[in-house]
């Protein structure tokens, strides 16, 4: 019984693979390049733009019963992933665990966009699936903010007062592990994943200040400047959608997750996360 993890050596994929391996489960990574795959794990080529690679995933001699579906950075994933889902079901995959996203935009239904369209398709097709819908990753500070914190001792955001329950990768991986091995432990087949601390960016800056032992300030930037920041890692269209979603933080949308019965609260708060990763920001 094998779990196929797409997206290569992503942070959540690697963390999930380690949990599965420790529990005695076979794991097979799939990605276009094969880079960043941790030692001791098998890999097979998967290119979402090349459907001919899909069949090979199920020709390795492994009994693939679970798929962890990661589609990060793909603006409109359903047209590419739909034939893969159909093939996976045909080949006997028992359950697909999709890493989706929180927010109204990705709620299942005809008005959903992006990743929301994928779990809408899974639902409408009658597939056994779980859609994990994390809020903003704690690990985003390692990508979008680490340079400014190290070089300029500042944290940038578009949020004067908005509060966010940042979720850590390890907590996402543990939820994915449960989705594969003990699905009844989840509150919903479309579980929102949040961290245990609801904090403003001022409070995040204060936590960095305390941990690093030097003042870290929080500077408010414009939405347009935030789009430019995101465009270093995603296309402009995707960046603008992200910023529109992010703007709603000031309206309290992230706080609403605390009363949503579909929410699962992780163990690692942002202050603990900063303490654990402090060397990256020195």
From TrEMBL:
<dbReference type="Pfam" id="PF13460">
    <property type="entry name" value="NAD_binding_10"/>
</dbReference>
<dbReference type="InterPro" id="IPR016040">
    <property type="entry name" value="NAD(P)-bd_dom"/>
</dbReference>
<dbReference type="InterPro" id="IPR051604">
    <property type="entry name" value="Ergot_Alk_Oxidoreductase"/>
</dbReference>
<dbReference type="InterPro" id="IPR036291">
    <property type="entry name" value="NAD(P)-bd_dom_sf"/>
</dbReference>
<protein>
    <submittedName>
        <fullName>NmrA family protein</fullName>
    </submittedName>
</protein>
<feature type="domain" description="NAD(P)-binding">
    <location>
        <begin position="7"/>
        <end position="182"/>
    </location>
</feature>
